[in-house]
Design a protein that fits this description.
Blueprint lengths: L8 E3 L2 E3 L2 H23 L7 H21 L5 H22 L4 H19 L2
Antiparallel strand pairs: 1-2
Helix pairs in contact: 1-2, 1-4, 2-3, 3-4
Length: 121
C-alpha cells in the first residue's frame, strides 16, 4: 500500500521515509482490532489487561498514522510510543502460544522495525 505524496517527513531536521511506518501502523492496528474481536467472541472482558493492551495499540497506531501524515511535531513521539508498545504487544502475542496470535506478533514486530528509524533521525 503506497501512501500518495508521502515520500518523507522532516523530523528534527532529517528527512526520513515514512511510508513503511504508516503502512506498518495500519497493519498493526487492523491486527489488534481483529485480536480484540476474537477475545470478545471468546468471552474476555473488555476491561481485561490483554484487551487494554490491544486497544491502546490500535488507538496509538491510528494516532501515529495521523501524526505522520500531517507532519506533526509530535510524530517522533508517536513513533517512539508505537515502537515501545508494539514490542510489548509482540511479546504478549508470542507468549500467548495461540497460533492465531503469531500473526499479531509478526505485525507488531514489523511496526517496531518500521518506526525504529524515525527515533534516531
Amino acid at each position: 500500500m503506497e501512501v500518495a505524496g508521502m515520500s518523507g517527513v522532516r523530523l528534527g531536521g532529517a528527512t526520513v521515509d515514512i511510508n513503511q511506518c504508516i503502512v506498518a501502523s495500519q497493519s498493526c492496528q487492523a491486527s489488534c482490532e481483529a485480536a480484540m474481536k476474537q477475545l470478545v467472541a471468546s468471552g474476555m472482558r473488555a476491561d481485561s489487561e490483554p484487551m487494554r493492551l490491544l486497544r491502546q495499540c490500535a488507538e496509538l497506531c491510528d494516532l501515529n498514522v495521523r501524526a505522520l501524515r500531517k507532519d506533526s511535531q509530535l510524530s517522533r513521539r508517536t513513533a517512539t510510543l508505537c515502537f515501545e508498545l508494539s514490542n510489548q504487544v509482540a511479546r504478549a502475542a508470542w507468549l500467548d502460544g495461540n497460533v492465531a496470535s503469531h500473526g499479531l506478533a509478526r505485525d507488531a514486530l514489523r511496526l517496531a522495525r518500521a518506526c525504529r528509524p524515525l527515533l534516531f533521525t
